[in-house]
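Support reply, case 0932

Customer input (verbatim):
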Amino acid sequence: MKLIHAISCLLPAALIAAQSGCGVPEKKDSISTDTTVVAAGALSFEKNCRSCHNFRQDGIGPQLAGITEKRPASWIVQFVRNPAALIASGDKHAQELHLKYKAMMPGFESLGDREIQSIVSFLHTQKQLAANKSTDSNIVADPYPPIPRAGITLQLESFLQIPASAKEAPLARITKIAAQPGTGDLCILDLNGKLYKVIGSKPVVYMDMSKLEPYFIPRPGLGSGFGSFAFHPGFKKNGLLYTTHTERANRTPADFAYNDSIKVTLQWVLTEWKVNHPGDAVFSGQGRELLRVNMVGDIHGVQEICFNSRAQEGDNDYGMLYICTGDGGSVENGYPFLPHHKSRIWGTVIRIDPKGNNSRNKKYGIPADNPFVHDADTTILKEIYCYGFRNPHRISWTRKKQMLVYNIGQHDIESIYLAKPGHDYGWPIREGNFLIDPYADINAIYPLPANDSAYHIDYPIAAYDHDEGKAIAGGYEYTGRAIAMLNNKILFADIPTGRIFYIEANAIQPGQMAPIKAFDLAINGKPQTLVDACGNERVEIRLGEDAAGEIYVMTKADGKVYKLTGAKKTGQ
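Our regenerated output:
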């Protein structure tokens, strides 16, 4: 809803006051059609709004084609400037949007009137409405049952406050916690550009991407910036660290590109860093680029890189780097042919040997046991491990070495998949356990066709719909020793709502859906939700894990980190 958000600063204060009934004479809305103003608005829209809005399909927020014909500019201005206040005032349309999208759009008071006015001018040029939504009676309206409460309360204790990297929520875009091999030190990533190492009880800047990569950009996009990091499991000896970050479109030719008639919004870059002294509190070293990917949009990028946490030295999977590449918003923007194809990287999990050199660009290796290595079709990307994802947001491995992919869905379904080499998970012809038409209304889902087995698609081992949340965060099987009640449980969360769920690890079976249950929370001893704790309806939760298998909770809205310290029966 960033887009509607960007319009709210738009009109003069007198006009806003007039709509609020403050006695100022009401003036007729006017929208500039000056081409310079429209062009400036288009640029601002790409920067501030594109992550949540387009002109074809509803996404995180509504599609915006024709918005200036549906709502007065003055209303749009109020909503963009302060949606929470408009909702609280009882405005019917604002409340309807809030209920439909189940998230509170941030206010954009920081945008000046002139910039918001230019955005409105640009929106005014987008006249053609998206295709009519299907009225087919076969549409599935409520795909999954409600999630029951588990009767278990998780105990969260304050652990750390990350320095603010923004003036408004999210105050710190913290998205990943991982332990540095050898030292066990926790490292915490802020998408705005800093990787912190926890020294004692304080976060110390270990790596600053803005100083290391001169073309680094943290925006636009909900997930762009310093995307992820992964220490090689032999880091203590070899000093190898891997990172992803975003750069502007067409900064240099990409290793993975598409037809030049399709726009490029930004590029994702994977870098290998040779750290001079692995035990140091602050990074020093040299980097080399391994690969670069063009993206249609600023969403669903390269948001996870990791090594198999269960692989031991000598295993085939030891030292193999997994890279999750989303569809880049290609389907939402009208290019559904880009993902779901073994010759293209979008919507895949790839697996590489960073120490090798048999890739097309000779900068990394393709493992000999990758599933498509021996396929005679030379157009197939031999890097692909599995494919058919919209946004493979996170990966984790169970005690049994099962690989789980947590996939953020489109309109109504959040899924966990049991990933297997060479397997197809369906996007964009499937969403969860349902059929979709990628060339029509991608927000409509249907029962699977009678000949579904002919497609050889794997379906989720767990899923929930948007009655329960909005976007799945990654998770972990609990392997710590401090909380016996969590043994055999795989914990995961919902990003906007801050809810935490679990499935039983022994319930994971191919072709079957494991039941999901919801935890209650107590924060610093007080029963409450994370929405209440951070004072923001969009929590932006992520989970992390330390070397001992203990679980941490991050909330981007306020930049706080909690440690999971206990669990007990609710009511005890």
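We compared this against your earlier run and they match. Two observations from our side: DSSP finds eleven helices and 27 strands in the chain. Residues 14 and 530 are 37 Å apart (CA to CA). Please reopen the case if you see a mismatch on your end.
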